[in-house]
């Protein structure tokens, strides 16, 4: 991720409550490998979010700095999660993946999108938000600097760090490897939230039977 892109959150207008953080930009770039692909530009997506946003829609995430908004799938995205079956398990791929140059690669598995074919549009979008304070802390921990020194309170309160397309309007379990990365700390590209054994086991139960499409 280029440092100039990471400065995007800092330079946004104070009137905006939510912006797409550069960590999420890959979902707007066709061919990036990050799914679901959003077939509209960032500005248009933000407009659509703000047209639907109400503070009452915020749902608690895995930590105090994380929130979710569940919306009907206005972007017509296809689901990026598929149940594993005897018919498709041979299509699974594994590899070591880092989401940005600042992260340690971790072992992942997925269904290649080109092998799965076109999926129907999902019913909902899970818009995952991080607070401006958390985004700044994670940037600082990986040595990224902002190009603006605006006061913290002038920045948008929330940044969209991920968008998921799914058929349920509640949070799916975070992948086990993502929990582990988070527990490694901000310096390794995680959030610094300790591993919760009970949530980890629930995650394993779900992801043993499902995989992402990418």
Structural notes for this entry:
- This protein is α+β, with helices and mostly antiparallel strands.
- The chain has six helices and nine strands; from the N terminus they run H-E-H-E-E-E-E-E-H-E-H-E-H-H-E.
- A five-stranded mixed sheet has the order 1-8-7-3-2. A four-stranded mixed sheet has the order 4-9-6-5.
- The protein is globular.
Total helical segments = 6
The order of strands across the largest sheet is: 1-8-7-3-2
Contiguous low-pLDDT stretches (5 residues minimum) are 1-14
Helix content: 10-25%
Our Rg estimate from Cα atoms comes to: 17 Å
Shape: globular
How can the largest sheet be summarized? 5 strands, mixed
Give the termini distance in whole angstroms: 19 Å
Helix vs. strand class:
alpha+beta
Query: Would you report the number of β strands?
Result: 9
Strand content: 15-25%
In summary, what is this structure?
The chain is built from six helices and nine strands. It has 214 residues and is of the alpha+beta class.
Task: Walk me through the topology.
Blueprint: H1 3-6, E1 18-20, H2 42-52, E2 59-60, E3 66-72, E4 81-83, E5 93-97, E6 106-111, H3 113-116, E7 124-131, H4 132-141, E8 158-166, H5 176-184, H6 197-207, E9 210-213
Parallel strand pairs: 1-8, 6-9
Antiparallel strand pairs: 2-3, 3-7, 4-9, 5-6, 7-8
